[in-house]
Amino acid sequence: MQPLGRKMKIRRLLLIFLTSALFLNPLTTQAQQVFPPSWGGMVSFTFDDGDRNIYKNALPIFKKYGKVGSIFPVVADIEENEDWSVTWPQLVEFKEAGWEIGSHTMTHRDLTALTDADVDYELKNSKIILANHGIEVKTLAFPYGNYNARVLDYTTRYYENSRKAWGEPLNGIGCNRYLIQPANLKVRWEK
User: Fold this and answer.
1) For the chain, which has fewer Cβ within 10 Å, the N-terminal or C-terminal residue?
2) Cβ contact 40:27 at 8 Å
3) At what angle are helices 149-158 and 116-132 packed, to 10 degrees?
4) Which residue(s) pair with 46 in the sheet?
5) Is the pLDDT of residue 91 over 60?
């Protein structure tokens, strides 16, 4: 038997995670009181930066198995037609496939190091430009996972929720919707 190629390993890993989504039951005692026993919990898959390889590799696999994820593109990279970034038509395909499209800001700068005007620009304009392309955005993914009280204040002005880049892997029923904590798995797609 030949060793699996890189692309096959990535696909196998992704299938393992999709399969695990069907069997995980991360409900706390509090959650079990709110949700019926048959609910079983939730796993979500998020992809930051809007790399075109997510379109090429992940979207077809998710479609094949009837699953969806979330993609958080950097809007200026799409606008500037960066060769590695998803395009507007590709982003619409994600939307049509049922994926959540979120914002990863205009330029992926560390929001905590910016002036108030720059933070406002990054958050507001990325949301406006996505809306101009028919994409309603409700979630922000903080670039580099960096935030502070000031950034959170601006975030609540434009978004219904936001997420960090890393943290505790499970969010409970009463979690702060502006500090959703994902468990991270870094996968490098073939270029």
Assistant:
1) N
2) yes
3) 30
4) 70
5) yes
- Our measurement of the distance from residue 117's CA atom to the centroid of its chain's CA atoms, rounded to an integer in Å, reads 25
Edge-to-edge strands, sheet with 46-49: 46-49, 70-73, 100-101
Query: Which pTM value belongs to this model?
Result: 0.73
pLDDT tens digits along 119-173:
999 999 999 999 999 999 999 999 998 989 999 999 999 998 888 776 655 555 5
Nearest CA-CA partner of 83 in 56, 110, 45, 121: 56
pLDDT of residue 67: 87
Domain spanning 6-32+45-163: which superfamily?
A: Glycoside hydrolase/deacetylase (3.20.20.370)
Residue spans of beta strands (DSSP E) within the chain: 46-49, 70-73, 100-101, 139-141, 161-163
